[in-house]
Amino acid sequence: MRILALVPGGISDQLLFFPALDDIKRAYPNAEIGVVVEPQATVAYRVSKIVDTVIPFTFSAVNSPSDWANLLGLVRDREYEVAITTDLTWKMGLLLWLSGVPTRVTYASTGAPWFYTATVPDKSQANAQYQAERYHDLLKAIDIDGPAPDIAVNVPEGDLAWANALRDRLDIKSGYVLMYPGQDTGRIGAQYPISSWQTLIADFRAKQPKMPIVLLQTDLSAAQVNALKASDPQLIVVTAGNLGQTAAIVAGADLVLTPDSYVMQLSAALKVFTLALFGKNSPDEMLPPVSGEETRFLGITSGTGQVADIKPEAVLQKVWGG
């Protein structure tokens, strides 16, 4: 069986779709699975062993007829038997209908349900729903039911070895606080101010002077990290060259402080204690449901919808009191 998932959005959206992909593979172990994703989000599949084919397509662009025709040709050539999409636009529905894929699935909230062979209710329209569960609901149309499994990532051995060697060189074997002062792909305005990060760093230094503070530098956090390092040369900066290296660095942390981002999703998947700052999204939508006495994932939501408006004091209260 050949199954195609078409998932717009950034790296976070792909990671949140991993549980659905995992359950597809469990139900159909011999299935060939392909995904269509934004070009900048293809890197998410470095930490997945489930997917056979990754097709880049710029969902967010104003695509020309030739762009759509190229995608249509790729879908037709691979002769997929099932197509599942979170894209609710009529253009995507038309493309899948023209592709001839026998089973075409999306949410009932699509504006063009006639292009699909099956639709499922979109529960998130009525109440906040964890996004991984929302994505997993699409599998009901192909007879896969039940709760979504946890997000699972597979970090390449080379990336784990790189992280171990880096920690040895930096002498941070005993654990560290990892701060990611960046933002997720496509989440403009989701950065936390430099002055607020400085307040958090100063408080950690005062209360836990022996605990190393590590700044994670990626393409989306370079400017923030450089500004913080310039004002505080004692800070340790780790530059991750790919998503596997990022995951390996996250896995070694005792605590991750981050805005709502793919770093947050990696941290949750790796079961690291995570404190995340939210603007427009809510923790109920983006973090796994809390179960049991131990809360590993805490979210602080801005009352204004802007991460920048979260007071450092509110963050520190969660760290030391939560």
End-to-end separation in angstroms reads 47 Å
How many individual β-strands?
Answer: 12
Question: What is the H/E string?
Answer: EHEEHEHEEHHEHEHEHEHEHEH
> CATH class of the largest domain, anyone?
Alpha Beta
Q: Remind me, CATH topology of the largest domain?
A: Rossmann fold
Give the assembly state of these chains: single chain
- Which range does the strand content fall in? 15-25%
Shape annotation: elongated
| Number of structural domains | 2
Task: Supply the helix-strand structural class.
Answer: alpha/beta
The radius of gyration over CA amounts to 21 Å
For CATH, the homologous superfamily of the largest domain is named as Glycogen Phosphorylase B
Main beta sheet:
6 strands, parallel
Nearest-integer average pLDDT: 92
| Weakly predicted, low-confidence segments | none
- The total count of helices amounts to 11
**Architecture of the largest domain, according to CATH?**
3-Layer(aba) Sandwich
Considering DSSP H and I runs of 4 or more, what fraction of the residues is helical? 25-40%
Main-sheet strand order equals 3-2-1-4-5-6
